[in-house]
Amino acid sequence: MHTEQRLVEWLARGGLRPTRQRIALASLLVGDGEHRHVTAEGLYAAAAGTADKVSLATVYNTLRAFCDAGLMNEVVVDGSRSYFDTRLDDHPHFYWEDTGALTDAPAAQLKIAELPAAPEGAEIARVDVVIRLKKA
After folding, report:
1. What are the TM regions of this chain, as residue ranges (predicted)?
2. Which of 52, 95, 123, 131 is most buried, most CB within 10 Å of its CB?
């Protein structure tokens, strides 16, 4: 299947119109079929090297739209840094403090025995596990 058609279908799964900016950013995120963990700033820098120029505000707004549409997840590693993950299944992450990289951790090795009950009127939407690493 043609790459642009795959991107249009990916956007349609989230109920999003295939605008020029969304297609350009989706191409960088999922165009090759690989999963990615990106920051908005990193995606903006990658987009700067393409013919489709987008503003940093557009990158932030588009990433938020992709998350709201269920096409990707936001992983917050601290109060000032968010990564956007194209892999949607439940899985833990390693955050490499020395380099600022976020990578997938082996889910099969993680055992969560029990979660606290959600407060009345709420339900658990997702559990994010971020394991912070530094050089020994």
Report:
1. none
2. 95
